[in-house]
Structures are given as structure tokens and as C-alpha cells.
Amino acid sequence: xxxxxxxxxxxxxxxxxxxxxxxxxxxxxxxxxxxxxxxxxxxxxxxxxxxxxxxxxxxxxxxxxxxxxxxxxxxxxxxxxxxxxxxxxxxxxxxxxxxxxxxxxxxxxxxxxxxxxxxxxxxxxxxxxxxxxxxxxxxxxxxxxxxxxxxxxxxxxxxxxxxxxxxxxxxxxxxxxxxxxxxxxxxxxxxxxxxxxxxxxxxxxxxxxxxxxxxxxxxxxxxxxxxxxxxxxxxxxxxxxxxxxxxxxxxxxxxxxxxxxxxxxxxxxxxxxxxxxxxxxxxxxxxxxxxxxxxxxxxxxxxxxxxxxxxxxxxxxxxxxxxxxxxxxxxxxxxxxxxxxxxxxxxxxxxxxxxxxxxxxxxxxxxxxxxxxxxxxxxxxxxxxxxxxxxxxxxxxxxxxxxxxxxxxxxxxxxxxxxxxxxxxxxxxxxxxxxxxxxxxxxxxxxxxxxxxxxxxxxxxxxxxxxxxxxxxxxxxxxxxxxxxxxxxxxxxxxxxxxxxxxxxxxxxxxxxxxxxxxxxxxxxxxxxxxxxxxxxxxxxxxxxxxxxxxxxxxxxxxxxxxxxxxxxxxxxxxxxxxxxxxxxxxxxxxxxxxxxxxxxxxxxxxxxxxxxxxxxxxxxxxxxxxxxxxxxxxxxxxxxxxxxxxxxxxxxxxxxxxxxxxxxxxxxxxxxxxxxxxxxxxxxxxxxxxxxxxxxxxxxxxxxxxxxxxxxxxxxxxxxxxxxxxxxxxxxxxxxxxxxxxxxxxxxxxxxxxxxxxxxxxxxxxxxxxxxxxxxxxxxxxxxxxxxxxxxxxxxxxxxxxxxxxxxxxxxxxxxxxxxxxxxxxxxxxxxxxxxxxxxxxxxxxxxxxxxxxxxxxxxxxxxxxxxxxxxxxxxxxxxxxxxxxxxxxxxxxxxxxxxxxxxxxxxxxxxxxxxxxxxxxxxxxxxxxxxxxxxxxxxxxxxxxxxxxxxxxxxxxxxxxxxxxxxxxxxxxxxxxxxxxxxxxxxxxxxxxxxxxxxxxxxxxxxxxxxxxxxxxxxxxxxxxxxxxxxxxxxxxxxxxxxxxxxxxxxxxxxxxxxxxxxxxxxxxxxxxxxxxxxxxxxxxxxxxxxxxxxxxxxxxxxxxxxxxxxxxxxxxxxxxxxxxxxxxxxxxxxxxxxxxxx
Length: 1145
Hints:
mainly beta, 5-stranded mixed β-sheet, globular, 8-stranded mixed β-sheet, Methylamine Dehydrogenase, Chain H, nucleic acid binding
């Protein structure tokens, strides 16, 4: 049984509408992301999220409806499974409520519409038109609600047949009568002739038109451009542009109030009353994908190449005399646009980030100003799982929730293409900005006097001075120009309170111990010998360890007025790189050295060596730059842990014996490419967390008996310190390159996204943990003299910032596209060892004279980290997928699956030999390898399992034998092995199924048939799956098995459920679904049940919806008790179970 939970929810936006939903006087923006509705309101800085909710349905349409007598708009929602309803905002409960429900308008005998489902509301708001099927429209009249009821304002849908089948676009026209008029753009005949026709939908008596083309057509325009795609209705104009008709006019005039037909090469304006036509040819053709009205004469057009244009209607009074178009600039690739206010436009995108822009048609240079960006990682074309822990041969456990695993995705397309890092981490919530300061070198928090229980002093160290800020109990902040005996004219290396109630400051020239005369606390000062400066320092309540000029170590006793305990000169020409004196292990200090690249634990009483550990190996010149010895895990689980940050971004950890200080259990993790700096954050339970700053900061803490490295949402962090004030309790102070701010650490782990814009389609991505690089298969699309050109390249990127390293490898074959990229260690005969290689499969967009249809390319990585081609194999068909089986290369070609043996003779030469093949039913889409079994996902025929059987006798060929098959039609998109003999498969309809071999079947036919052991309707098409291996705990409820990435930008974690928890989770899911109603009152079982062209199930089978289960935590206590009735366990036990499930992702 499977448990499916979202790691990242859908971010692609295909539908959006502006309406007065929340308030009669203020408009808002509603967007749909798969099965989620979001409401955004405009503030002075941009759009802010007001409300978000998911429901049991994938949104296919949104529209605004204003019921008669209502002061606010209602939202009309349609789903892909033909559920339609309206919702209104409940201002008291602060949520959306379902108002109107429709019967299922689907018909199994009808063919779905050529374009996507459409919903149109006429300009007067009287009628709603739904386009769901080819040759059919559904008309719904908006009526006046009966007295006392507000939920019956929509009449029964009237289904009307059309003779126009292949409708490309449709719209309501602006009319001066009460009879709405629609325009249809359609193609007919074998030659695809494109025509425009108009109809009045009701007659004078209010009866629906029969839409008879011979007697009901109002207008008909033939011979339109084949590329016509959109219809733009034009308003009648204001008072100064009223229509007038001239009788007996020799030439009919085109007046405002008509319609614009948009094509790639021209714009056609039709006045539907006079039948006058005006054409405007474009100087530069383009493929337009979306439009939006700015005003009655100006319209925005967005094209396929992420460009924005302004279309202006030229008028002479009410007469249209022409049109012109102007390019405004580049934006994101639009799926639709919504005008929010004058010049303020929301650009929704499926292929890139959505944007809020300000458009100024009067500006010649900056016509588009970007105001806000809404991240979107969809569509996810491919992704790689990067385990950033265990760099020294440890097991890769793919533990996403701990933050030690990140997913790197190839997202978006063309100009909006990017590489995204998806990682679990903690967030920082800013409480306030203290000061806009630049050049901060360190920050320290102190208590101003001994009796104070809170921190009220903040010291900010600058390169040549120190600034002091005092916090009052009311929250006011004031800068102080002096503080006791401290030296504020130098940079501060360390400042802290002592156990005697004194304050300590260390600068490069002195150590100052300040006391209060009233408390009879003496002040003391220690200065280094002449010519020496303090370069590094660390201390606790007892001791202070200093480095002078990096060559001399000095130990001071703070308790005895800075008494000099011991001095030691560093031998062998080495220098001190970093120092740390722990609070838990008194009497010792840890020192890192530059030249030797080692760390030493010293006795602070005499500076004698206790333990030493060399860190450099394999000609690695990296040196320790920061150390910390703290108690991260409880003492009953582990002793203190030593953290060592190396110069190259690697963090080493050691277990420390608290009695002998012996180091053991060395581990490593990569937190960046630059040196990491540690800042200790003491916790109230006696443990410590560590804030690690680098180009990507992390929070290191203990949880559930292990050390967690979580990403932190902070950039350019220089220094951090804990802060516990009456007003700002349990906060931290964060100094960045630009400012100093007060922040609070969010205790709940969340998904964090980092983006590297590429400007190309990153179609395939593979990760090499040995080389610490990513292999990217990139497709670049350009317009050159109005001609579209496509080029392809293989790029190597480093694994932290994802920046390109080395030179890219351009595919020299014209029209060649990368289809797949994998990484593997292949055997090389010239070294008799394994070497890291990238394997690339390609296809050709067009046939060439040499009958080449694709290639298999083998790449190595040279010393400059550039890819170089070792060998290539020409194919007579495209190579869709490649995989590795026992050192052989498995290739999924157009009709066959072929296994090649790889022979590398030198570093620059190799060859492939075909050893066996299998002919598929149609076309193999994906491969999954488990031992010697190859799972082949077929385009139309679901899944087949092949067994690779090496020749038993010399001279006999190896063979691929079909051992099992799923005997159903299933348009597969991806496949992954889960466990034992079970496989997960996805299809184009958004379904997931789990298939398993019946190894104990009675007959051979039973054993050859793959049995269905689980099915579920996800509602999103899965592009890629990646199997993962997680070592489960003894009592684990679920075991993660695979990551799934979808076209809508969602990432899911699929897990298998322990047998002991299966029954409870099934009953819990049923109880939650019965007690929690979502928008549209759609049944959970009907939404999540399997559905394709051949079969529809009644409910999901052996699948648990993690998103539904986790809704349990959002309910009030009474509803939780109601849900738990009859389940057996107490509500507290159920709550703990759900919280445990949620923590896993």
C-alpha cells in the first residue's frame, strides 16, 4: 500500500481572473494552480496572498459572475472531471463557500473540444457559455434569485449543437441590445479553411437560437489566415465615439464595437454590423499566445517568445481607420494576462515564473517595469537527487526531510528555462530592520548588568570601529556612544558577559574586562607584547584563548582578572587558522592550523596537546577555517560533536569522547563551495544549534537522535548571534552585507527553492557525486531574421551554485536534440578500473540524407571540468532513454530495447557492441532497472518486464526475455521500481498505478501477468520518477521509495506503508473524507479514483492521500474527535501519527 505526500505543491498558473470577491469596492486576483485556489489582494508593494485552499478537482476554468442583487462577485469554477459550481466569500468565517452546484455535463459519446475547456460570460452578465465538447456549447442564464434564497441564480444548462466543429476561439461581442452575440473562429474541410461566424444566442422572445448556419448566422468572414488563433472583442466606445450608420453609403465603414482576429502575420478587424473589414499586416510575424485589454483602443499581446506587444486601434471618431502594433519588451512566457488596474498587469505563466508588471504605453524606453515575481518550478522536465551528506563513502540515504538531500530540477522552457534547487529547510521571519549598515564584521549581544535576565545591548563590529545599541523594555532602540570601559574605536573580535557579572571585550590590541564600581567588580586589561596583535580569539566563562599574529597562543583566566595561564609558540612555521573554546567541555580549546591543515585539542592550563587530527588527504590543500565543539544531541544519545569547516565548503564532523577527547566517527557534508563560518546559538535545554554561514546558509541542530542540516532562507549572511529580549524574545540578530535585522527562526521545516535562470530549456539533468557536477542537456531556441533555429548542447555545472564550469559541448549535427542524460561509472580496459562517464541519447527533428535518426554519445570530464566526447554510435531511430545494467548500456529506441556492451580502449576512444534486443509493442517511453530485470514503460501498452539472460554457453548470444506484462492499454509517461517485484507507473491522464508480479501464480500465465496492487488519480501528469533508498527506523510507519515530478511544478514523495499501519490509515482516510467537505462538495473518492479513456473506477485502490491525511491537523478539536470515532486509537495518538507522517517530508 502506498502513501503519497506533496513536497512542493503546484506552482504553474493556467487560469486567473480579477473580480470583487472579498469586498464590493476592492478587486482581487484569483489564480488556480492545479487543484488549488489562491486569492491575492493588491497592496502598495505588490500582491499579497489572502487565502488559499485546495479541493477535490483539477481546475479547468474560472469566471466572474455577479448575481442579480449581490454587492460582490461570485467565482465560477469548472474541473477537468466535469464538476461545475460557484463559490462566494463568507466575510464572517473568512473562507470560500459553495453556492451553486451543477449536474455532470459530461457525455461519454462526445469528443472533447479542440482547444481547452472554455467559459465565457457575456458583457451584460446575463449568460454563461461553456465549451466542453466538439460541436456543442452549454448556455446558462443568470436569473434573479428567489426571495430568501441566494443559491439559485443559475438556470439549468441548455445544450446546443453547432455545425462548427473545430472551434479555435470564441468570444461574446459588445452589443447595444439585450440579445448577446457570440463569434466563433473555426476551421473546416480537409484544407483547413479558417472562417469567422457570429450568432445571436437568443431571439426577440428570449428563446435560445438553434444556431442554424443558413438562417441564424449574423456574419460570416471567409479566407482568413490559417494561423488565426484569438478573437478580441472591441467595445462600442465612449460618448465621443458613438456609432452612427450612413444610409446608402457607397463604402461601408468599420466602426468601433467589432472584433479583431489575431493571426501570426496579420490582424483583421470586422465590424459585425456593417460587415466592413480592415486588415493590418505585421512587419514581423509572431505566434501570439495571450491577450488582454488595456482600454477600448489598446490591447496587450504576448507571444511564444516571451515578448509583449501593444496593439492599438487607430480611429477617426467612431470609425476604425487602421491598426498598429509596437513591441514593448521581454517578460515571462504568458499563459494568460489579467489587467488589475490602470497599467498594472498580472502575467500568469505555465512555462516560467509569473509576473506583476507595470505597463506604460507613453514611455519609449522602459514601457515594462517588473514589480513582483511569483516563482514557478513547473513544468519539471527532469530532476536529479543530490545527497549532500556522506561524501566519504557513506551510504546515500536520500533523507529529504533532514535537509541533507536536495532535488535539482530542470524547469521551464526556452527563455524561461532554469535550474532549481528544492530542499527542506527552516525559514527566518524578520521582526524588524535594526540598521542599514554595510561592512559589518561581527555582532554580539550582552546584558548591561548582572541582575538583568534579558539581553539589552547589541554590539556591532565594523572594520575601524564598534557601535553599541541599547534596547529598552518598551522596545525602543537607541545608539550609545560609550559603554563602560570598552574601546569603541577599534573593531571588536569578541564581546560577552562573564560568570562574575562583568563584560568582556577583545579587540586586536587589548582584552578589556569591565566591572561596576558599585558592585565592587574590578576592571582589568591585558595587552599583547609590542609588535603583536590579536588575530583570533574564543572563550567561555572561565578561559580565553588568543592567537597573536597567528603564531603564538595565549591562555588567560577570566575568573582571575585575565591572569596569563600559559603561552605557546607555534612551531614548524605553522599558523593558527581558527580557535574555539567550548562551554560544555571546560579546560580545553580547539585550534585549526593553516600549513598542516590539522586540528588540535589543547589543555588550556598549559597548552599541551591532548589530541590531534590531520584533515588533508589526496593532495587536498583545503584548510580548516572555523571550528565548533558543542553538544548538539542530548548527552544520553551522544557526546559532544566537533564541527570543522574547511576552506572549500566541506564540513567535517567528529564524535568526541568527553573524558579522553578522542575523535572518532568522521563524517563529511558539503554546505557550499566557499568557507563556512560557525555561530553558536545556545538553547534553553542546554543543547546548542549552529548557524553556518556560506553562500547558502544552513542551520545545524539535533532532531530524533540525529544531526540535521537544514537550509535557511537568508542571503549574504555575515554574522549571527542569539538575542533574548522582553520585546524580541527568542530571536536572533542577523547581519548581512546590506543590513542588520532581528529575525525569528521558524521551527517548522519548509521547502525552499533556489533558482538559476538559464534562458534555455534544461531538458535533461544527471548528477555525478564523484565529480560533484551536474550534466545538463540543454536546448536553445532563437529567432534569427524571423526564422526559428534550435541548437543543442551538453553542459557541465558545479553542484552548489549550478554555474557552468568548463566549455559546453555543442552538438554539431543540425536539428539534433538531447533526449536523455544519465551518469554512470563504466569499466575502462586501459586502466582496468571504473571511470565516471555521462551517457547522452539524441534524436533528429528532421530526416537527413544519411538516414541518421539519433545517436548515443559517451562523455568524459577533463581536468578543466569540460565535457569531451569519447565515442558516438549512430542510430537509425531516436534514442529516448538509456540506463545501466551490469555495466552494459540499455537503450530505449523507437521500437526496440537494445543492450550494448561498452569497450573503452583509451581515454579518447571507445566502441559499443550490440549484444541483444527486444521489440516493443509500440514505443518505449521510460526504463527502470532492478538487478537483471528491465521494466519498460510503453507509450500505449503499459508495462512489460524483460529479463537479461547472459549466454550460458560460449558462442551463444545473450537474450532479452519477456517475463511479465500488464495486459491493458495505458499511455505511460514514467516508471520506477519500488521494492521486490512491484513497480510504479504514471500515465498522461494523471493516474498512478502500482503493478506487481505474481511470483506464486499457479500457471505460467498467472506468473506472466502483472497484477494491479494500487491505483490513484493524481490529477497531474508525472514527467519523471526517481527511486530513492532510505534506511527505515525500527518502527517506521512509512518507508520513502520514490520522488515524482509533474508538469504543474509539483513534487511528491511516494512511500510504502508498514503492514501494521495500513488498516488504520485506510479507515482514517475514509473518516477524514467523510467529515471534511471542500469546495464544490466533490467526493474524495470520485476525484481520486482512476480515470482514463477506457475505464473509470469508483474509488482509489490501496493508496493513501497524504495531503488529505495531514488536513487532520488543521481541524478544531471537536472535529478531530468526530473523525477519530470508531478508529480505535485516541485522538492524541492519531495526532501524533499524522505529525510523524508530516515530518517525513
